[in-house]
Model the fold of this input.
Amino acid sequence: MNNYQLSEKFNEMAVMCEYAGENIFKARAFSKAAEAIASLDYELYEAEGDFEIAGAGKGVKEIISDFLNSGASESYEKLRRTVPADLFLMLNISGIGVKKLKTLCETLQINKIEDLLAKAESGKVRQVKGFSAAGEANIIDEIKRIQSEKNSKLYFIAERLFYDTARSLKHIEAVLDVVPAGELARKLPVIKKISCAVIYSPAFDSESVCAMIAEKLGLVGCQTIHEGGLSVLTARSASSGSLLDFFLVRSGDTEDKIKKILALSDDYIESVSPNLLPCATGSGSADQTARALERINAIAVSAEEPDWLNIAPEHSEVLWKKIPPRDLKNIKPFTTDKIKGIFHVHSSYSDGVDPLETVVFKAREMGLAYIGITDHSKSSPYAGGLDEERLMRQSEEIDRLNDRYRPFKIFKGIECDILKDGSLDFSDDILKTLDFVIISIHSNFKMSESEMSARLVRAISNPYVTMLGHMTGRLLTKRKGYALNEELIFQAARKNDVIIELNSNPYRMDVDYKHFLRLHEMGILISINPDSHSIADAMQCVNYGVNAVNLGGMPESHIFNAKTIEEIEMFFNFKKETAGGKL
Done:
């Protein structure tokens, strides 16, 4: 069990404690353990001998040892028996927290998400105190969304599951290598199925390799198709429930070609090669999959190599729709080392983990040239939002740190709440004292498209606004974004020289990469912002943003935080000077 899986287990234990009415300090201990494990820079299963977890008591350490040694814990299972079977699935319903869900489950005797859907569709939910007909309709819509996304995984989760799987497979004598395929190779923000190409030794036959894989990983529901010299094993992981595709590729002259084909977008292959069906992913009929395998093999053994075969997988998702295939291979991927600084970083002034100086010190260690601090504003008290006095105190500390760490630059900012009417949480007199301002919506999500769009346009029109944060408010696999007219938002951003944030927290990835061609066309800059609450996580989040930049085809010239300190300061100064003229 890796650190991510361990951290998730302790987060789940904290939630189960809350649901079961356990001691609040016990829940906090589990929550703190989850944070401490997630921040470790080594895997606990690789630790030799005893290990230390900040703030962890004897009981927590015993649970960790149980998970590491056996993959299970009696303490966890004991809690699990006190809550509904689908507790965590039902908590993905927008607007339903632990307390409201407990009321529903206890009143209506609900254990599974299907039970809740049936009660809602029969009108029973609205009869429970605290729920309305509108709330009941929302529950129905949300459950249908959750069921449609049930097997989907965020990229970072799918990536870890892939590496765990690959590590296990490499212990099989017949397996020479395991590489990502399909959506995983293209690094999509949400992965519906984890696909990989398994390169195996010619000394073994594909049928026996399939059997070895199934036994090694404990797969269930296995289906195998062998055709045209290729094989695909489609199955489900018994431990994670993930859908898995294993494309078996015999080591030899054609393996590089086949790996490239398996990585490319299904739509792309279909559009540029009429002789090839969409790349097999285990979906559709067995006949379709067999024909696709046969044709993939036919391209691999052909002496001719199509132009599209050398396109980077991450560029095959969107760009091919507007750029001729022959030109795509000349596009260079954007890389993380081109990022010179980061914005949208929280400190312990609000809900961040790290004190301000720790954030600065570690950012310098990462090789960054600058950082933009944006703690929450006062309308977010749940996140420790800053009032005017605390914001000024933070600004004074930033001045001292800038003197101490020069030439590294700390930019003063705020993540300012957009209020319901589109006004901002701080007055212009406060905003003009800062280097930059990110504006975000954190409340009143359920507005009509026209109302929400007008709200955002008014906020963007404030002359001191620099960036629009997480534009749609979505949480991938958990909450859909609020209704808005994206084109109106983009027009307002262009008119007011406002940067659109690519919030690269893997749960957000907002704004969506599918808008990048339009943003580029309009001359709007994006900033890859980690929205980090722990500086240790910041650059990993930036990596996910880099993936999205490549998927959407945004060039380096339009990425704000790929610019130098001097260019950043010039932009900020221009915004403040023009703001003075607009008032």
